[in-house]
Amino acid sequence: MLLSGANNHNWRLTTPELCAVLRESGRFRVDVAGEVAALQPADFASCDVIVSNYNTFKNPVPVDAVWGAAVRAAFLDRIREGGGFVAVHAGGSSFHEWPEYQQLCATSWTRGTTRHGRRHAAPVSFADAAHPVTRGLEPFWTYDEFWENLVVQPGAVALATVKTNAAHGGGGAPGPIVFATAFGRGRGFCLLLGHDVPAMRNPGFRTLLKRGTEWAATGRVTIAPDAPWPATEAAAIAVAQAASGAATLK
Description:
By secondary structure, the chain is of the alpha/beta class.
């Protein structure tokens, strides 16, 4: 189940892109929930993994106004008994007063603390090369929006870091950008890359999304990395330029 229908980013473009990436792997059937507030407890029963491209950041509302107690309990029970949850970029930036949801998300945008510079190309390295999601993957470059000064939940494990460029407003030091969490017998995966469609076209992003979602759903990873792998700054910029149809990126 892919949660959509509201986001402070352009969900109308990114939701179809996320669906296409997951479906191309052959491992997922994707059902889009475009009316998140209409979900009922029984809707989670058949989901192996719930992927969030949804937030209420533009129009903050209490979690009770979106999901009542019975829906929240069904969501958590499905994860706790062995299901998975994936937050993509700003997909975890809701329900800040709901501790279990924030625990699953690992991190989200914290007003007054979290920041990002201008979009630019930067290198991503793997902090946990033994994790099923990242095992065997080489570092890569991507053109994206990189969050910094994160407030990370206790128990979250950083799987990858990005070294932002101070010339583009970044902090210049490596910071975590991909996380894994545990919840009962279930798993959470947080991928802060993927600001827009050009960023989602990067083979590194696509690989992490597919492998992270498979791991969240099953605890195992069988999906091979995408190719060609963007091992240089120029390669990352070329991917983003091709996706945006622009000769230069802003």
